[in-house]
Every structure is written in C-alpha cells, then in structure tokens.
Please model this.
Amino acid sequence: MNQEKKKLTITIPEEEIMQAGHLACQGCGAAIAMRYALKALGKDIILDFPACCWSVIDGPFPYSATQVPLFHTAFETAAAVASGITNGIQAIGNDHTTVMAWAGDGGTFDIGIQALSGAAERNDNLIYTVYDNEAYMNTGIQRSSATPHGAWTTTTPVKHFKKGEKKDIDSILVAHGIPYLATTSIAYAEDMVKKYKRAKEIRGTKFMHVFAPCPTGWKSDPAMTVKLAKLAVETGVFPLYEVVNGKYKLSIKPKELKPVEEYLKLQGRFKHLQKDDIDYIQKKVIEKWEILLKKVEMFGE
Model:
C-alpha cells in the first residue's frame, strides 16, 4: 500500500541539557520536571536551589546534572538569591540570561514565602518554579502546607493524618499582581514546555507551579509517576491553567472529572482513608474546580 506517511511534528526541543547520572530516586517527578524546563529555557540560564531534593539530585561538586550555572543557597532564600542575580546581571548590561529559582514546596509554601512575596511585590525579572511533591521529601517526608488533606507523612501519621486543605499558593501569587503564573504537570510535556517558553519572554516575576509526584513520599509505584500526574489533572486535584496579567485561561478542561478515588487508591499515603474521608476530599475538589471555572468565566482572556 502506497499510503503517504504523516510527517512527525516535534513540539519539544530535542536537545538534552540535563544529563544522566543525577541522584534522584526512581520515578522522581522533580527530575522529569527539570528536564522539560531546561529543554524549554535553553542553556543561557542561571539557576538557584535552596535546600531541597534538587540540592542533592544535581550531584556533589564538581559534578552537575543540569550542566548550567547554579547557586546552592539557604532554605529560605531561593527568591532573594534569584533577585540578586537578576539585578546583578542587569547592572552589567546582561538582559538576555534567564534567572530561575527552583525550589520544593517546603521552601516555597512555607520557609521561603517571605522572600518570594518580596520578589513578586518588586516584580523582579525572574522565573520562580516550585516543584510540588506535597511534603518535605528531602528531609524525611514531613508535612508541609502543600500536603493535601488526608495524607500520611512522618509528622502526620495514620492516626493523625493531615487535616485541612492545601495552601492556595497560586491565588497568593496572583494577588501580588505578577504578570504571569502557570500550573504545569510532568504528564503534559508539551503544555509545560509551551508555558516555560512563554514565561521566558515576559518581563517581571513569573511563577511556575509544577506538579511532581514523589514515589518515595507518596508510597507509590515509581512506574506510576506520570500516570498519577495525569490523574491529578483528570480528577481536578491539580487543574492546569495560566493567569496572564490577572486573566485566567484553562489549559486542559476534562469533559467530566474522574472520581478522585482513582487518584488516591494508587498511593499508600492515602490507604488508611475511609469512605467518608474520600467523600470529603471529592467534595472539596469539586468546590475548588467550580471556583476556578468561575474565575475563568469572570476574569478570562
């Protein structure tokens, strides 16, 4: 049969900037996230890591999996260091190098929020990425304010599992009036790369919220990392959207949200939950999804 072959369209840059030999756990969502981010942003970049999984994943000096300039800094200072770098390179006439802080949820939602708020208020020209694995994974799987209701951690054991909702860090950053915010997932590589490329072209503070499952802390199969990240979007646990100058736009809109139990049952950190607990989580997911849809309707592009 002489059928004409369809031309393959490549939407993700082929160049691999992040190299093999990193020290991440099997199935680490944070490692996948860095790979895609660097593909989008290129080599003309300066990174800074506070204390987090990536301060270990990158490897011991003089080795580095990222293969780009980076600063290792204190837990609470990711945004402050990025602000210093971007203002420093501007002072010497460099207006082309991207500066990105790359931090976990502990160093963003909790310990680093003061520096992040300051950078956002000043609208410093940087990208701030939080790779969100919903706990302090590098220091032993302790609860953070990004930990979802119902989850086991070493500081919220089964009999005293995490009570209360995850902090809405995205609304906090939107309230600062920054020019760009995006939620992204490692399960949607094209969407993630597109958003990082867009962030690179915008001046001011850009906040990238990356959903990055952690098999170790979530007690999940490392082979299920991407599936979990996709289910989080399909169930409404982690919607994908952008906020550009206060205007909301959905990136992915499922025709119908899948039951949240499909997402929860693949993670050992939720195996203790009873039906009432799951029903409560489902109710909250739907409430937050409807609020987001209202924001898109009222403040959409």
Remarks:
- The beta strands are 45-49, 70-72, 98-104, 126-132, 180-185, 205-211, 241-244, 247-250.
- The chain is about 35% helix and 15% strand.
- Residues 174 and 218 are 28 Å apart (CA to CA).
- The domain at 29-299 is CATH 3.40.50.970 (Rossmann fold).
